[in-house]
């Protein structure tokens, strides 16, 4: 399959170019470094496949096994990239995730230090040399770690993005939606590679027909590299933090600060200079602004945007709403949107429910239905039927 060797070489070169571009293009954010690491690791896998297919390892036996531990870095690199893309702070503890790869290298040192002749015997398939003692610990460790890491890092990445998605359920940012789809593609790729390893092990264990692992994996990696190359022109999808816009940032901050705190004053407000009288006055000003200017009709309305319009700090606005109304920011805004949609539902029965929700300031069907049911106890359609008479 000479053509597969060519594909592997082209893919490796393209991946190296991408990694270099990401490293030196500092304007596109920190997430680029994690993606650069992924691309470089993929290029090494493709180069190893290329050297195997053209029998380069037989000429230079010391090339054998150099990428064995590499499978243990894909999970941590993907997790770091997802974390950075969601603009969650990457903690130093994340670097401990690379310890298994380091352990694998240490366990394989006895193999790496063998002579070229001993490694050549393994390539030649000598039954006495297929699994020498100095190779077994490293191989067993890598196999076990790979089978654990695949589903583990899929879960960790999935859990992280779902938590953010739930937190931002009232804000459907196109940028976050694009990042969500992209991360799902990466997780699907990681899961496919894991399943491929599992199938190969099963086929080998039960002496089934040989599975063309190299051809399948090289094709998958090549497709992923092409996708990254195409999307690299859409910098917001690959590199810009999904929470970089002001609406998303303020949403995340407010929900994290106020979740579960709507019925008592948070400890962080106890020393604030915003006493009850001032908080009530500010809250009345906010109500007037919402009723007169109808700011709630803006689907991108955020705490920071409201602060700009009213001239107050985000902290004081958040405290006033929480302290005086026992609401968080989004419940405060959504109550006006729900009231607007109730009027529209009864005023124009021929108007589609979704159009009403969008016209009232909601930016998705799910957020509209969730907020409407929370404030009225019924769905928009049920509300319209109940008041039809």
UniProtKB/TrEMBL annotation:
Pfam families named among the record's database cross-references: HTH_18 (PF12833)
Keyword Transcription: yes
Residues in HTH araC/xylS-type domain copies: 280-386
InterPro entries: Homeodomain-like_sf, HTH_AraC, HTH_AraC-typ_CS, Tscrpt_reg_AraC-type_HTH
The entry's keywords: DNA-binding, Membrane, Transcription, Transcription regulation, Transmembrane, Transmembrane helix
Annotated TM spans: 6-24, 33-54, 60-82, 94-113, 133-158, 179-203, 215-233
Molecular function terms, GO-annotated: DNA-binding transcription factor activity; sequence-specific DNA binding
Source taxon at top rank: Bacteria
Keyword Membrane listed: yes
Name listed for the protein in its UniProt record: AraC family transcriptional regulator
Protein species of origin: Pseudoalteromonas piscicida
């Amino acid at each position: 399959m000479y053509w597969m060797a060519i594909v592997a070489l082209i893919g490796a070169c393209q991946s190296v170019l991408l990694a270099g571009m990401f490293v030196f293009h500092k304007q596109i954010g920190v997430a680029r470094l994690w993606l650069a690491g992924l691309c470089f690791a993929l290029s090494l896998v493709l180069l190893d496949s290329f050297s195997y297919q053209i029998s380069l390892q037989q000429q230079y036996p010391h090339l054998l096994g150099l990428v064995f531990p590499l499978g243990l870095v894909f999970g941590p690199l993907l997790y770091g990239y997802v974390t950075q893309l969601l603009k969650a702070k990457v903690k130093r503890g994340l670097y401990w995730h690379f310890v298994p790869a380091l352990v694998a290298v240490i366990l394989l040192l006895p193999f790496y230090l063998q002579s070229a002749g001993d490694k050549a015997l393994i390539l030649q398939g000598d039954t006495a040399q297929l699994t020498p003692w100095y190779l077994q610990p490293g191989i067993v460790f890598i196999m076990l770690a790979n089978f654990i890491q695949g589903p583990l890092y899929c879960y960790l990445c999935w859990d992280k993005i779902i938590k953010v998605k739930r937190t931002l359920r009232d804000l459907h940012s196109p940028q976050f939606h694009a990042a969500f789809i992209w991360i799902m593609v990466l997780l699907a790729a990681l899961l496919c590679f894991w399943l491929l390893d599992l199938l190969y092990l099963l086929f080998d264990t039960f002496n089934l027909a040989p599975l063309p692992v190299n051809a399948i994996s090289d094709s998958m990696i090549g497709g992923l590299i092409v996708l990254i190359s195409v999307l690299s022109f859409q910098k917001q999808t690959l590199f810009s933090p999904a929470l970089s816009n002001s609406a998303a940032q303020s949403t995340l901050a407010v929900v994290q600060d106020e979740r579960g705190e709507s019925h008592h004053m948070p400890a962080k407000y106890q020393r604030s200079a915003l006493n009850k009288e001032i908080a009530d006055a500010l809250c009345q000003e906010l109500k007037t602004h919402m009723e007169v200017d109808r700011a709630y009709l803006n689907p991108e309305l955020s705490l920071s945007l409201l602060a700009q319009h009213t001239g107050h700090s985000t902290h004081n606005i958040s405290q006033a709403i929480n302290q005086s109304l026992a609401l968080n920011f989004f419940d405060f805004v959504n109550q006006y949107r729900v009231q607007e949609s109730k009027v529209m539902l009864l005023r124009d029965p021929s108007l589609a429910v979704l159009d009403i929700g969008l016209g009232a300031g909601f930016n998705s069907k799910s957020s509209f239905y969730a907020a409407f049911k929370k404030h009225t106890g019924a769905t928009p359609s049920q509300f319209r039927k109940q008041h039809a008479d």
